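Mods, move this if it's the wrong board.
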Amino acid sequence: MRSRAPALLLILISPLAACAASRSHTLLAELDALGPAPTAGSEQPPDPSTPLGLPELLVSASLHNPELRAAWHEARAASLEVPVAARLPEPTVTYGVFLRSVETRVGPQIQRLGVMQGFPWPAAQGRATMAAAARADVARRRFEAMRHRVRAELRRPWAELAAVEGTREVLRTVDALLERAAASARARVSAGMAGVDDLARLMLRRTELRDKEATLGERALTLAARIRALAGVAPDVPLALAAMEELPAALPTEAALRPKLAQNPELGVAAAAVGAAQASVEQVASRRWPSFTLGADWTVVGEARMPGVADSGKDAVMVSAGIRVPLWTRSYGAEAEAARARVQAAEARRDQALSNAQAELARVVASFAGASRRAALNQEQLIPSAHAALNAALASYEAGRGALSAVTELEEMLLRYRVEWLQAQAERVRAVADLEALVGEEVR
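Not the wrong board. Structure tokens:
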């Protein structure tokens, strides 16, 4: 009987442990399928002579972003903890010495060695494994959602940096046009045909433009630092000149995109959290079930004092079994009620995540449409008209017929239209980045 007990225990334990290990391997495989594991740094640092563009930065962010790396390790840790839930309680080994030995027929009892092993209710162990697997699924989905979020967060400052660099180039172009007007103003002053007020106004305006360009240069440094931090690269890694991403002229309608919200990563996290909370309810309910204890004791017996006693000095071996009886039902009921309340909280967060996703979809579609309309208006109508009018006014002023006020007014209009066009282009990029993070896939 003693030789059969370990085999019986293995038969009871092995399926649960194997199931937990299999589930852990499945979760780890799903995590690995999302892409390479993020690392603390690149094994081969970027060539400092090769500036990084947006594609390279996106790849670097997926591999080296610290926040993404933390989420990956949390997901991996949660997956590795699944077999822990199926682990049996640690066995208890006891040892005792009889300070005053008890005489028996076969001899005095000298010392005792015992071992006890607890066994939970088999279904309770399975529910604990399911709850751990559900928590691991939440962590994996958080990592996946963060991966999409990091891509969008990187594309937003890149688009703004492209708009800033484009605006600086526009300011330099306008400054060159005003230099032409300033040359004509100097010629007029030298010929006594005009006072120095025109020249002073032009110099003041050029100073304002140069100050704006310097301010934008400082803004570009801030954006570049943010981009490097998101990409997980060193602060001194050079960046390529930011350029706007090529985007489609139009996006699918909101109605066509709405079914894709089922793929929303944040909604997936919220739904998985509901599943984890429900699994926790099942796990808490299983704590009301009894658990068992099996044990064995070996008592060392000395030689009998009387000679000729049969079985003199024969050690005693005892097996025992116990059951844990759950009596404190009131506390178990409170724990179960708390678990059900957490399910309701998770369901409320899931509903809010769906509402947020629907509102965000409406926002990004409207934002893209509005930005596309403004970009087309400025590029096709306002900028060409203002540019032609400015050239005409500048030629008239250089010929001595026009007024400087017309030149400066049209210059300000052209600058405003070109900046609005750049900002509209950046807004289109941000809208697409937010949309792709929202639906969890590219929409181009």
